[in-house]
Fold this protein.
Amino acid sequence: MNITDEIVSLYERRAHGAYFGEAVSELEHALQSAALAAGEGASERLIVASLLHDIGHLLHRYPENIADLGVDARHEIIGAAWLGQHFDEAVTEPVRLHVDAKRYLCATEPAYLAGLSPASRKSLQLQGGPMSLEEAAAFHRTPWTADSVRLRRWDDQAKVPGLVVPELDSWRPLLDATLR
Ligand code: FE
């Protein structure tokens, strides 16, 4: 099985569960994230990062309500490490940093924190809470700040029940084109 088939199969088998306390499935969340990225003219690799940003949730074997158990599975680290076998850092870095981007936005934009969904606010605590000003300044200097913040905003919006967006198979050519 090639890597694109492996990824599509993983989402088909494991992404029908709820997306952590939200009203969409993991698959719907992934597809909506990719559609938002494409709609805003993101690069091919950033669209792929948006599609696959939560792949870590599908790779680990913790239960769906893991946050309720007080455990942070560090899905962004698991996902970026797995993706690093097949994609370059323009894909893996925004994935690895999308949780830090949330902590960064909470520290730098008061309205952002207020706009988070209840589930996302709950997981924020497990993820370390808003960054300190020192952490935010350091994060602001990394080369992937802009892409990870863009991905984060699509991530936050990609929770609309019943929204019709391009299906998983439609992203196969883009996956093939961006694999290393
Ligand atoms: Fe997400």
